[in-house]
Amino acid sequence: MAVLIVGATCSLGESVVDKLLSMDINVIAEEESHRERNLTLLEYSDVSLNTSGSGFSISFDGSDADIVIGKDLIIHDILPTRDDRWLVPEIRNWLAGSIAETKPRFWLSVIDAANAISHIAKAELKLDGIHMCGRREWSAIDSKAEFDMLWQRTNQGITGKFTAETLFGHEIAGMEAKPITHIDAQRPDLDPLHEILLQLTGDGWRPLITFRTALMTLIAGIMDVD
Fold it and tell me: Is the pTM of this model over 0.85?
């Protein structure tokens, strides 16, 4: 089988291409960047990456496909690996040093999203308005606290001049138990996604990448561009 990926110029699209190839699933995508990222894998495996062909299709640019991201699969609160169209407004504001009103988030690593999408594509399963996000609610205050700590630590790492405040005494923000009745935001319905993945993988929808890890990856990607 082969999966046709359309408009995969964002970090999520790239992660889906990479994951499919690692699962020994042939991919069709016109962007040369996918081949450059996966040169070693393509050289030492039988999987193929072609620029043209047909197969079960996933679109990241709104064009017609078996699965159109944003329509058939609606993804919320994703943390990309760089500053691209998935980066939410408040993180752009934090990067610029400004503070804007925000809301609770159900943060989701692009890696967890790509893993789930790849399993769905492998099964050639069409979707209809399925929602995807993280399972845990993060308040705006806790999200900002994690970002500030990691941003400061990264910048100090560049100079090699760490402060004790940055290096020590930083527990992960928002770890206090929170009663269900105190949930501040309405989480998208994840039951349909969970049931689909339960049938496909036996695990259901269980994101594995922590918010801190996903945020560190994003910051590293932003710094690399800078």
Answer: yes
